[in-house]
Amino acid sequence: MSHTQANLLLLLASLIWGTAFVAQAMGMGHIGPFTFSFARTSLGFLVVLPLALIFETKNINKIIFQKNLLVIA
């Protein structure tokens, strides 16, 4: 990874981190905390699941991978 790519990824991470607080504050005004937490967790799971399936390595035992997939998300 080049120096420029690393800097762009850091910029993206900070952008996501910073806007998350604004989105949470706005979201909590419209729905309850448990519904909001469920929606955040579900969205995270849906984002991580394809990435975990794409980057699955052959070294990982399939059964262990499947059992821990939900925990990873």
Automatic annotation (TrEMBL):
Keywords recorded for this protein, A-Z: Membrane, Transmembrane, Transmembrane helix
Q: Which residues cross the membrane?
A: 37-55
Q: Name one GO cellular component term.
A: membrane
Q: Where is the EamA domain?
A: 6-67
Instruction: Using the record, list the residue span of the signal peptide; answer none if the entry has no such feature.
Output: none
Pfam families linked to this entry: EamA (PF00892)
Name it: EamA domain-containing protein
Q: Which organism is it from?
A: marine metagenome
